[in-house]
Amino acid sequence: xxxxxxxxxxxxxxxxxxxxxxxxxxxxxxxxxxxxxxxxxxxxxxxxxxxxxxxxxxxxxxxxxxxxxxxxxxxxxxxxxxxxxxxxxxxxxxxxxxxxxxxxxxxxxxxxxxxxxxxxxxxxxxxxxxxxxxxxxxxxxxxxxxxxxxxxxxxxxxxxxxxxxxxxxxxxxxxxxxxxxxxxxxxxxxxxxxxxxxxxxxxxxxxxxxxxxxxxxxxxxxxxxxxxxxxxxxxxxxxxxxxxxxxxxxxxxxxxxxxxxxxxxxxxxxxxxxxxxxxxxxxxxxxxxxxxxxxxxxxxxxxxxxxxxxxxxxxxxxxxxxxxxxxxxxxxxxxxxxxxxxxxxxxxxxxxxxxxxxxxxxxxxxxxxxxxxxxxxxxxxxxxxxxxxxxxxxxxxxxxxxxxxxxxxx
Length: 410
Fold this sequence. Notes:
This protein has 2 domains: about 10-200 and about 385-410, Glycogen Phosphorylase B (Rossmann fold); about 210-385, Rossmann fold (3-Layer(aba) Sandwich), CATH 3.40.50.2000. It contains 16 helices and 16 strands. β4 (about 70-75) and β5 form a beta hairpin. The chain has helices at about 30-35, 55-60, 95-115, 125-140, 150-155, 160-170, 180-185, 210-220, 240-255, 270-280, 300-305, 320-325, 340-345, 360-370, 375-385, 385-410; strands at about 10-15, 45, 50, 70-75, 80, 85, 120-125, 145, 175, 195, 225-230, 255-260, 290, 310, 330-335, 350-355. It is globular. The strands form 3 sheets. Strands 4-5-2-1-7-8-9-10 form an 8-stranded mixed beta sheet, with helices on both faces. Strands 13-12-11-14-15-16 form a 6-stranded parallel beta sheet, with helices on both faces. A two-stranded parallel ribbon has the order 3-6.
């Protein structure tokens, strides 16, 4: 195996979920993490885009289906390539990883010939990680895979499970955003020693508390109301509907209750109309506020207006938004899935409740909305989870991967 003789890792970040001009809020958590690594190590992004000949017709029924992406753009000085790969919706999904590798091979070969990278850094075990290990084999470069949570549902499907396991076994190093995901990989037969837990961090320069009174005025919220908030894609998994369902019961104890919903359509789907229908049916139009999508630079204002952040999600790797809420001084109520319990690690910052238990969720929210929280302690907890420590761990790990690959190449 030929390994370029340089002591410094140079990365190609490979991920299908990455922001672009047609879908600016997709994968911002990946960009946040890897652009910070990019301040220490050279990076280039290859963000393959699924395509099939008739997807324009699908958009006549589903307008948000696979928004058009450019072939190339720069973001904050980082070059990003968007090669297409064949992906027929609903069919042959077990082949997405192979077709992704084929679709990326030309640009990856070109970048390799230009000595632009010596490590492929893939995000999500399948299909991205599987494609990355094929490309790594073809181009003779080591591969790292970051598990982010989709590995759990993929492992339940036989065809994807086989390819997921193969990808994880062939990777030189695996990063997991939570210990729970690391344990999941071990349960699939992956060597735990090759898995490093590196959770996401929080940008405390971007997320910090602003004046609550001014924040509430901006959204026409009563100054003496109790306010809940959730931020995320408006899809089933995130659990907005589970919060809406218990609001009538909550309002019997907390009559001045309001709920802010921030988010929109995502790659997983769009439940906007369904959620609005639920709100209308329950007569909550004056209490549930759909604020649409917001850039991360603007989120501190609605977060600071809230008393509690709630995330009744069905599946999660490591939800960045939990720490972002805490950085604004907001306690968190979250379901006990994925890495949520690792982020909401003690009762001074929030409460973890069993997933799907509406009574426990209602009780936790009621208690949180009526409790006096130590805001300073919550903010300090978030600051202890800044990005600096995470980036240092990743930089060290990439250096070791390159050094080990060089030894094997001799």
